[in-house]
């Protein structure tokens, strides 16, 4: 909990900080990378820095945490998500002090706040940081080398990689989790990206990569069978939970990867649960795992698939043309829903589920979380 004096100051300045948080975040990253350029080369996603999405995500998380403190509530789901991301890319406890230094300096520079207000926001930061450090302490971390033992062209711009550790066993993993892949780039930087596990294997890991961004292009062009990749241990808190109630898997584009992994797990265990699989894509040829989706649904005792194409090739049902629309899909209120795809898709589908009375909703977003 915030101290009474800090709570008073944070509540009074939250509107001003919230209004300026985008500018604060941008200045924060500029300051931090000027003093620690190696962080941008080996830890932070340069693409997300360039388009501003990382700054937006930081702004949203800090504002959400401060608002939660004032309301006496901690945003546990958001904190778990951040902790898993941090562990997967190798954030250390000591780096929180670096972030604190430049974030509080950016707040002071943008808003010209008093030392007392700066101290209050510093208290907010360390409450959030200490919570994350505590969560991250108990999550498995570390990297190891894997050899590419197979790769498959799913669509024109999606490739699936099957990798096996060079030394040791495959680490524990769960359907819905992801791995971070670090690659060396021509300019000497070592950049990291996360990719969801996209299948069920006993002695290897499988992940799929859409050709989008410098790391993904590297993997498509320079990671043949026999090459070695550096991967983190599997991470991620959006995983298939046990139970016997109905489940919904809703995805768009490459967001189908964790959904296919969860479906494969249910099919492999002969699950009797009611399963509703929904996917949206541009057309049949851009839909990764199209055949696997049909095969897995056919294996399950009580499952159905609803596929939407914006620009279908050939004949296609009119009610399945366009964006994903769950209003025509019967979804029981006690459904556990898993969502993955672009932010506009997540917002739209979540709103439709809430309207239908579904409250148990879990989502994974590729890149900074801008759904708040």
Automatic annotation (TrEMBL):
Superkingdom, natural source: Bacteria
EC number: 1.14.12.17
Catalyzed chemical reaction(s): 2 nitric oxide + NADH + 2 O2 = 2 nitrate + NAD(+) + H(+); 2 nitric oxide + NADPH + 2 O2 = 2 nitrate + NADP(+) + H(+)
Keywords: Dioxygenase, Heme, Iron, Metal-binding, NAD, Oxidoreductase, Oxygen transport, Transport
Pfam families cross-referenced by the UniProt entry: Globin, NAD_binding_1
Gene Ontology BP, a term: nitric oxide catabolic process
Family listed: In the C-terminal section; belongs to the flavoprotein pyridine nucleotide cytochrome reductase family. Belongs to the globin family.
Protein's recorded name: nitric oxide dioxygenase
């Amino acid at each position: 909990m915030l101290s009474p004096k800090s709570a008073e100051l944070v509540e009074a300045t939250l509107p001003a900080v919230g209004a300026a948080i985008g500018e604060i975040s941008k200045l924060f990253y500029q300051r931090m990378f000027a003093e620690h350029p190696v962080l941008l080369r080996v830890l932070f996603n340069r693409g997300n820095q360039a388009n501003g999405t990382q700054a937006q995500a930081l702004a949203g998380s800090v504002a959400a945490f401060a608002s939660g403190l004032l309301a006496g509530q901690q945003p546990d789901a958001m904190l778990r998500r951040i902790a898993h991301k941090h562990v997967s890319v190798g954030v250390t406890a000591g780096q929180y002090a670096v972030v604190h230094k430049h974030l509080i300096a950016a707040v002071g520079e943008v808003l010209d706040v008093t030392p007392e207000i700066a101290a209050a926001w510093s208290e907010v930061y360390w409450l959030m940081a200490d919570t994350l450090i505590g969560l991250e302490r108990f999550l498995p971390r570390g990297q190891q080398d894997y050899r590419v033992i197979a790769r498959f062209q799913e669509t024109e711009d999606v490739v699936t990689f099957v990798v096996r550790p060079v030394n040791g066993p495959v680490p524990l993993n769960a359907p819905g989790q992801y791995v971070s892949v670090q690659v060396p780039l021509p300019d000497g930087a070592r950049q990291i990206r996360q990719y969801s596990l996209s299948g069920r294997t006993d002695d290897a890991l499988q992940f799929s990569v859409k050709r989008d961004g410098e790391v993904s292009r590297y993997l498509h062009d320079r990671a043949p069978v026999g090459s070695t990749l550096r991967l983190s241990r599997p991470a991620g808190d959006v995983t298939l939970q046990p139970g016997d109630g109905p489940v919904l898997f809703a995805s768009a584009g490459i967001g189908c990867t964790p959904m296919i992994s969860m479906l494969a797990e249910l099919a492999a265990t002969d699950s009797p649960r009611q399963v509703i699989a929904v996917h949206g894509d541009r057309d049949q040829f851009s839909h990764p795992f199209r055949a696997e989706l049909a095969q897995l649904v056919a294996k399950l005792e009580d499952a159905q698939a609803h596929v939407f194409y914006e620009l279908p090739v050939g004949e296609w049902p009119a009610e399945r043309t366009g964006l994903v629309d769950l209003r025509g899909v019967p979804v029981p209120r006690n459904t556990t829903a898993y969502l993955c795809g672009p932010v506009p898709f997540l917002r739209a589908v979540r709103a439709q589920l809430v309207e239908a009375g579904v409250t148990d909703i879990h989502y994974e977003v590729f890149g900074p979380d801008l759904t708040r």
